[in-house]
Amino acid sequence: MTTSQAFLPFTKPTIDEETISAVAEVLRSGWLTSGPNVKALETLLSEYFGGRPVRTFNSGTCTMEIALRIAGIGPGDEVITTPNSWVATANVIIEVGATPVFVDIDPKTHNIDLNRVEAAITDRTRAIIPVHMCGLPCDMDQLYAIAEKYSLRVVEDAAQAIGSTWRGRRIGSFGDFASFSFQVNKNVMTAEGGCLVLNNDEEARLAEKYRLQGVSRSGLDGIDVDVLGGKYNMTDIAAAIGLGQMRRLEEFNTKRHQLAQHYFECFGSQFEEQTGAELPVADFTDSNWHMFHIVLPERVVRANFMQQMLDLGIGLGYHYRAIHLFTLYRERGFTDGMFPIAERIGKQIVTLPLFPAMNESDVERVVSAVKSCLQ
Ligand SMILES: *Cc1c(COP(=O)(O)O)cnc(C)c1O
């Protein structure tokens, strides 16, 4: 292997000429902000999620924050979530004035360990934000059984899970709130953006208010503001990208599956035993394979491993460092050792390249590089 091979990043968006033309058309049209393309994307997404109301936003983060606001969650309330996620998942809880309560993760799925959730519920618990990590869904039966038993709202952080399924049904097509991100690294992207799947028209109207300064309009010059909203609307430029991406979602996810499958073939059945590293759950039913992770053995220093791979022309990510160990969270009383599984995963996980434009020889190149670096 040589370093003269092209650099392989851990992810890269696929953007076709049709999408580029659609964006150019928006730019020429004179209507750049939320308009017909946003409407068209919301209609398409609503169909995709089984007819449920869907509203778009300029990030997946604000999407979750707005779901919490719609649910009326604020100061004095506790929200249960996972320490293994992008920090946004917990930040939105603090943003609305509520208190994040972490529950450790399952060492195999890296999702919140639902068997530990009940022990974390108090009389102040109002909601749970689970993450479908890498697109591998949480056990939806168990999740919603707990939510029902304790009357909790659920905001699914489905940022990574577009196209994932549970028992044959799409994530987002059932359940309570489902929040998706269209940040550039996700399976469907709009550069930046997100959408929220809601339960009814009333929630959708409220979502529109929170999205744009709390404004409601009537007639030619009727306007009122009755809730404190922000500025979270998606542009038509972004929506045009999203429409182009949605056309190819199935194709993208199929390709991700094939590449993930090839990873398993190339690592082989002896890899874990021989190296002490851990492969992800080999789920080819429900997951959309948003990312392919391996957990490095304790003997390996992740930064060194990442540097060695970089020297071979391969870029890696790490998703994610345990949230509760960030300074902001330590200042709120969280410390080392509280969630040992998330802490171990957060220190040792790496994300291998996986995106639709890759081919099987790229996978082979990554696997042989990983094997040689772990020797
Ligand atoms: C990407 C992501 C987010 C945040 O989405 P943005 O669109 O970047 O705001 C939140 N949670 C998870 C799990 C994510 O992967």
Automatic annotation (TrEMBL):
Q: Extract the GO molecular function terms from the UniProt entry.
A: pyridoxal phosphate binding; transaminase activity
Q: Which residues carry this modification: N6-(pyridoxal phosphate)lysine?
A: K186
Q: Does the keyword Iron apply?
A: no
Q: GO biological process: any one?
A: polysaccharide biosynthetic process
- Protein name, please? DegT/DnrJ/EryC1/StrS aminotransferase family protein
Similarity remark: Belongs to the DegT/DnrJ/EryC1 family.
Q: Which domain of life is it from?
A: Bacteria
Gene3D superfamilies tied to this protein: Aspartate Aminotransferase, domain 1, Type I PLP-dependent aspartate aminotransferase-like (Major domain)
Task: Supply the Pfam families for this chain.
Answer: DegT_DnrJ_EryC1 (PF01041)
Q: Which UniProt keywords apply?
A: Aminotransferase, Pyridoxal phosphate, Transferase
Is Transferase set as a keyword in this record? yes
Q: Which PANTHER family does this one have?
A: DTDP-4-AMINO-4,6-DIDEOXYGALACTOSE TRANSAMINASE, TRANSAMINASE
Q: Which residues form the active site?
A: K186
